[in-house]
């Protein structure tokens, strides 16, 4: 099997074993897939969710605690990884722990914000501190011709920027869950090309599985949403993992690759910021000027809008892999598997909706 994988350029990250990586992925899928209904029922009972208002399409309380289950799926998968490969994990333990701790802080602060609306400045400060946690543990942008302090500033901008960019896209059913899954799958294909990225391989397999399991309940019409807890966790994790080797080089292509794969949230945040500044309002002011709003105004429904954004993310992911000169067979396999799994969970949700009347739908800002 190893020789077969090496013929496709897969010889580094998967030296930990194809079976452990598959089990990690499936564990994360199972935790989110099967536990979300119970979490949703508890959230409804406790009133933990987004109430209907003029900015949303849901007609009843929509639980916003899906991010807690996504995080739980990732942690459960990582515990399994430690049990399966304790010797290997010892070499990347500090990286895993720093990302997990930063992610846990994001989930905690996001959950509190979902229920009580924290000040935006406080959330930014927490994100900067979490970026600092990564830096002191060796996870940072490392451009060879820049001084260390400049690398640290770029790392903070990258982590805070991607975290918020992904969060801002969480305004339509399935959007961030799908983006997180597609991006994690493409970064996973990249991480398998290098023997030094075992930590990235494990985290990405867990994150991809959690996002896929969550999508089973979040594809339109959603029964539960990520909330800030889940969206910021996914954004933070993707920003952190993309620095586990991918940006630690001097080659321009390797620096560009993670930017390309995350270009959809980057472009969305950029155009929203520019539009709002030109209108003379604060960039963090709620509004209906995100990419999904633009697609909806052009006549697409929520499902078609999210599929369009998924398609753009997948296309950019392929471009990113081409920039990194990933074997074409690896790219094709990654794309086919990603599309097939997305189609599977979307079909499962559609069949469920056909059997029962749709509950609610969401359009946040």
Describe it.
Residues 7-14, 246-251 and 359-365 have low confidence and may be disordered. This protein has one domain (2-49, 58-355). The chain has a two-stranded antiparallel sheet. It contains 14 helices and two strands. The longest helix has 31 residues, at 86-116. It has helices spanning 2-6, 18-46, 66-84, 86-116, 120-136, 148-168, 175-191, 198-218, 227-241, 252-261, 263-278, 291-297, 302-323, 328-355; strands at residues 49-50, 62-63. With 365 residues, it is mainly alpha-helical. Helix 2 packs antiparallel against helix 3 and helix 4 (86-116) runs antiparallel to helix 5 (120-136).
Task: Break the fold down into its secondary structure elements and pairings.
Elements: H1 2-6, H2 18-46, E1 49-50, E2 62-63, H3 66-84, H4 86-116, H5 120-136, H6 148-168, H7 175-191, H8 198-218, H9 227-241, H10 252-261, H11 263-278, H12 291-297, H13 302-323, H14 328-355
Antiparallel strand pairs: 1-2
Strand content: under 5%
What's the helical proportion of residues?
A: over 70%
Series of secondary-structure elements, N-terminal to C-terminal: HHEEHHHHHHHHHHHH
How many domain modules?
1
State the separation between the terminal residues, measured CA to CA.
47 Å
**Major beta sheet, specifics?**
2 strands, antiparallel
CA-based shape: globular
Question: Average pLDDT across residues?
Answer: 84
Please report the number of helical segments: 14
Structural class determined from secondary elements: mainly alpha
Overall strand count: 2
Runs in which pLDDT lies below 50 for 5 or more consecutive residues are 7-14, 246-251, 359-365
